[in-house]
């Protein structure tokens, strides 16, 4: 059975989407079958994989409110071995629309239960909040992977996130585990990045991935071409880093 990884951090702009896209692509490159789920109304993972998010009829929004079934919501083989459930701005209304729904913490989990076994990995990109959408991702997930940007305020909000993961584990999803943290946007020209890595390591108990994602301009450019980094610039430092991260993720067992 596959592993479902929620990529979460309520801090904005830390590399969740970049990691969702490129970790998924690196896993697929290694022969794994991957389903990517975009749970962010910004739809950046969706457009980063080259889909026109404003032209989509069947997205995670329609899936969650029961207007389309899972088969329709999954857009198949957008790249080799990669399927996606896309998102767009419509999803922003879901929280209000489902305010009285039964078991609303489990809507996503229920929706994908039928297809879960078709994949080796399911990667869920979360929005920058601890909202109902992130909770749905965490009840669906086996593990939570937390990207941490190598900048001064890196630790801010991390304890709140860990607390949320623990609450979800206690009350909603006893199987949830911390996949670990991955440092992103590491800048080898400054001491700050190194200091942040050391400082965070001292303050957390969670697994820290050995692979550190460098700041790499190619990673920032790739989404505007709708391509994951391993296709946009296969030999770039960013592509190499996500391959190494994928190796580590595959090797870890839960
Ligand atoms: N390793 C990197 N090197 C260079 N630029 C990066 C890197 N990782 C992310 N970026 C850029 O930083 C910005 C934020 O990254 P990203 O969208 O992945 O973060 P996010 O956590 O998903 O943001 P949000 O919270 O808004 O969803 C983007 O413009 C992205 O292209
Ligand atoms: Mg994002």
Structure report:
By secondary structure, this protein is an alpha/beta fold. Helices cover 39% and strands 15% of the residues. It has a seven-stranded mixed sheet with strand order 3-4-2-5-1-6-7, sandwiched between helices. Helix 8 links the parallel strand 6 (143-149) and strand 7 (177-184). The longest helix has 15 residues, at 237-251. The termini are close together. Residues 16-17, 40, 42, 44 line the site of magnesium ion.
What percent of residues adopt helix (DSSP H or I)?
Answer: 25-40%
Question: What's the pLDDT, averaged over the residues?
Answer: 96
**Poorly predicted sequence stretches spanning 5 or more consecutive residues:** none
Tell me the structural class: alpha/beta
Strand residue content? 15-25%
CATH homologous superfamily name? P-loop containing nucleotide triphosphate hydrolases
Small ligands present: adenosine-5'-triphosphate, magnesium ion
CATH A-level architecture: 3-Layer(aba) Sandwich
Distance between the termini: 11 Å
Count helical runs: 12
How many domains make up the coordinates? 1
Largest sheet: 7 strands, mixed
Oligomer: single chain
Rg, please? 17 Å
For this structure, the CATH topology is Rossmann fold
Strand/helix succession: EHEHHHEEHHEHEHEHHHH
Question: Order of strands across the biggest sheet?
Answer: 3-4-2-5-1-6-7
Briefly, what CATH class? Alpha Beta
DSSP E strands, number: 7
**In one word, what is the shape?**
globular
């Amino acid at each position: 059975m596959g592993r479902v990884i929620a990529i979460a951090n309520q801090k904005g702009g830390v590399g969740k989407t970049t990691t969702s896209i490129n970790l998924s692509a690196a896993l697929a490159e290694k022969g794994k079958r991957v389903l990517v789920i975009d749970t962010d109304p910004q739809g950046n993972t969706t457009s980063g994989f080259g889909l026109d998010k404003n032209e989509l009829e069947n997205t995670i929004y329609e899936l969650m409110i029961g207007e389309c079934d899972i088969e329709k919501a999954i857009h198949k083989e957008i790249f080799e071995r990669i399927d996606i459930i896309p998102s767009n701005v419509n999803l922003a209304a879901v929280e209000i629309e489902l305010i009285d729904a039964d078991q609303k913490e489990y809507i996503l989990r229920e929706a994908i239960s039928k297809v879960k076994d078709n994949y080796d990995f399911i990667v869920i990109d979360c929005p920058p909040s601890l909202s109902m959408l992130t909770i749905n991702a965490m009840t669906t997930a086996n593990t939570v992977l937390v990207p941490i940007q190598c900048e001064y305020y890196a630790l801010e909000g991390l304890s709140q996130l860990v607390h949320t993961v623990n609450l979800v584990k206690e009350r909603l999803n006893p199987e949830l585990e911390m996949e670990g943290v991955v440092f992103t946007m590491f800048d080898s020209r400054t001491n700050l990045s190194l200091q942040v890595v050391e400082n965070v390591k001292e303050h957390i108990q969670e697994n820290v991935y050995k692979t550190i994602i460098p700041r790499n301009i190619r990673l920032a450019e790739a989404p505007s071409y709708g391509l994951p980094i391993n296709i946009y610039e296969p030999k770039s430092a960013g592509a190499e880093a996500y391959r190494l991260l994928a190796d580590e993720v595959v090797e870890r067992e839960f």
